[in-house]
Amino acid sequence: LPIDQSGVWRFRELLPILENPNDAVTLREGNTPLLGMPRCAQAAGMERLLAKHQGMNPTGSFKDTGMTAALSVARERGFEWVACASTGNTSAAMAAYAARAGLRCLVLIPEGKIAWGKLSQAMDYGALTCQLRTDFDGCVRVLAEVVEHYPIYLLNSVNPYRLEGQKTPALEMAEEMEWNVPDHVIVPGGNLANCSALGKGFQEMKHLGLTRTVPSISVVQAAGANPLYTSMQTSAGRELTPVHADTRASAIRIGSPASWRKAVRILEQTGGFCEQVSEAEIAIAKAEIGREGVGCEPASAVTLAGLKKLVKDGRVKPSENVVLLLTGHTLKDSEYTIEFHRGNLLSEGEARGYESKIAPLRSEM
Ligand code: F0G
To answer: Which residues carry this modification: N6-(pyridoxal phosphate)lysine (predicted)?
Structure first.
């Protein structure tokens, strides 16, 4: 069956969301590799390190695991239109799965603030693609008004079925580790759905007796888009502190994340941390992941940059088993990579103090 070849639907007993899972809209998502990262381990001061590469999904990001679930539900319920606001990856994934499902889709994205690779995917898969002169948070507000007036199924990350699909990388990790789990999983934080989805996956496995423990789940944000980090510092996560978001890691350029309460709960329940990293730290970590022959988009690289900080001050021990969740493929934002290696990405201020680390990573061009 096609659904047995999907890394999401082969766990269908744990995804009780469709009347007939055989009707699922699938592109054979999931089944992504868990890769050893020996040089990144060394750079972070760890004895070993693994990366779960969700960028190896059909549209190149972790969003596919959620979209196969949510588009299947949308089709089963008879919707003709789906829509999302996005920093790029959600729209690419939604457009592909909507096309497979035979549904129309509307994408709202902040003009000039998403990577070309992602914009081109939404167009290629046939989405009605609107660039608005605002940021991601503004797109979310406009879309909330649109869906009030039209029968459109909303596919932003508040959609519960997306979270069901996005919990499956946790199941795959446990499966590959023979039903042990890592000590620690580190994810980038944008709209903050992914950490809650993975937390849910790990908690459900423990509840069912498939595994014995739940890993700590930590969230890393770009310092220029750090509402969760700020909230944890100022109110221990009791209130959200929206920020004006600005980072070259455009996927996580989000100032007012929807799922912050769920994220705080997962941090508290699993004993995870929230960290922030600078533009230079992101760029260095991304180049190190690239040098490993693996590669990822900038937003994914915050995980390695954050791990370095957690190891440095003893919050993670070098002997622990850590998995980084790489959320997007390196080809999503090739402009960023080229600018970095040409030496044009970081301003003098951003690079200050990191020059000696950046120089050896930049290839001669
Ligand atoms: N990494 C990548 C590559 C992303 O595209 C996103 C989010 C995240 C990390 C953050 O995940 O939102 O669950 O905390 N991208 C969304 C989008 C917002 O529209 O594509 P999160």
So the answer is: 63
Q: Which CATH number among 2.40.40.20, 3.40.50.1100, 1.20.1250.20, 3.90.550.10 corresponds to the domain 62-161? A: 3.40.50.1100
pLDDT per position as a tens digit, 249-271: 999 999 999 999 999 999 999 99
* CATH code linked to domain 10-61+164-361: 3.40.50.1100
Determine the atom of ligand 1 nearest the C-alpha atom of 300.
Answer: 1
- Complex ipTM > 0.90: yes
Length of the chain: 365
Q: How close is the Cα of 354 to the center of ligand 1, in Å?
A: 27
* Distance from Cα 364 to the centre of ligand 1, integer Å: 31
Q: Are 55 and 49 in contact (CB under 8 A)?
A: no
pLDDT tens, residue by residue, 342-353: 999 999 999 999
CA dist 50 and 52 (Å) reads 7
Whole-model pTM: value is 0.97
Could you tell me which residues come within 8 angstroms of residue 117 by beta carbon, excluding any fewer than 6 positions away?
Answer: 60, 88, 331, 332, 333, 334
How far is ligand 1, taken at its centre, from the CA of residue 1, in Å?
A: 30
CB of 190 within 6 A of ligand 1: the answer is yes
The CB density around residue 190, as the number of other CB atoms within 10 Å, is: 32
Among 53, 63, 162, residue to substitute to test ligand 1 (most atoms within 8 Å of Cβ): 63
